[in-house]
Structure prediction request, 475 residues.
Amino acid sequence: MRTDSSFGTGPTGPTMGALPARQHLPAGADGVPVLDVVVPVFNEEKDLEPCVVRLHDHLARTFPYRFRITIADNASTDSTPQVAAWLAASLPEVASVRLEQKGRGRALGTVWSASDAHVLAYMDVDLSTDLNALLPLVAPLISGHSDLAIGSRLARSSRVVRGPKREFISRAYNLILRGSLAARFSDAQCGFKAIRREVAQVLLPLVEDTGWFFDTEMLVLAERAGLRIHEVPVDWVDDPNSTVHLVKTASDDLKGVWRVGRALAVGALPLDRLARPFGDDPRDRALPGVPRGLARQLVGFCVVGGLSTLFYLLLYSGFRLVAGAQIANALALLVSAVANTAANRRLTFGVRGRDRAVRHQAQGLVVFGIGLALTSGSLAALDSAASNVSHGTELAVLIAANLAATVLRFLLFRAWVFPDRDQGRAQQAEPDATPRPPTPEAWSPFENRHQLPHQDPSAPRHARRPLDSDQRNAR
Prediction:
């Protein structure tokens, strides 16, 4: 992902991006948990104990790194806080956090922002998702391959048991996301997700929703910023006793789609904060004889150019009804040029954010002037060659002139308006400068007497008792 505003000068030379380069995470040798699984709950006094016991047993037996389970109580009014406190006191690597306000997004944002674990995950308390998918979920994040990971109930190899009503709502919602926000991930609302800590630190402040839309907003912003999202097909069994209010949740989600879509459309989100350092993406590498991104840029420019031409012709036909040919041509070119520059800036050349946007539009208007000279000259030549020219002939001449101007426009865009500054900056950087991930911060204590257990790296691990025969696991 290219941006103009994320470039800076660091102690080892020029760098690109606010995030460090992805690297394999340490295997817990620093005493910090590799994984923190958050279980957000609201009035779950019956399901909380069997869920946490089963999850703890699964991680203790199968997860090869240090882990933590954090119970995030969303202002429960039943005995859930007492059950959470008992679990935190009884089981190693289990902690509880009490929030006085409701909202799954608020709970996840609060706990994730304060956690010192390298990978942050969450799952619903009903454990509808088979736990065997947990290690495949977090493995790409630990290895440095991906930035976020989600469980998908809509993948072809997923095995799902649920009613037709929920199936229809889930698929319809994801179709809405694909159509309105151009989302490419398959399942936004599956309660089974994970994110790398350094990504969460930058991404979470951009997420406004504190309820059920939190997941969707986080994924859309991450995808638009160019982060890699890994999807894991899951085995999933619907919980018939779910307390989710479908109508209210759907209404809030649609409002969230509108809010995020509008913010993305006007460029109000600083997604360049999520840029990786230059060179982290293999597409940054210069190969002899292969111009960087030329093929992709040509395709994007042709698509934008085709749509801009149609837009221009419609505008010209409309303006021609009330003005002469020259005035109609100038107005149509001006409006379509602004739209064309904005579209090429974002889609063809991958420039995001507001930085240099005014400058790019000014340069685009210069290119517009060249196109205006070509098309206006063509109209003048046509007018001098023959009188009473038909509207169809005018359009044919304009199309030919626009095709000639298109080639020149692409060359000017690529070499002058949106030059490939990244390659020059990379050559200035020291070849041995390797970005390092930030040092984990200490866990911020909550105003709760049940705090997260701080582990001594030299201390022996707690003995774990087998829980397969524990009757509390029965669901």
Remarks:
- Residues 357-385 form the longest helix (29 residues).
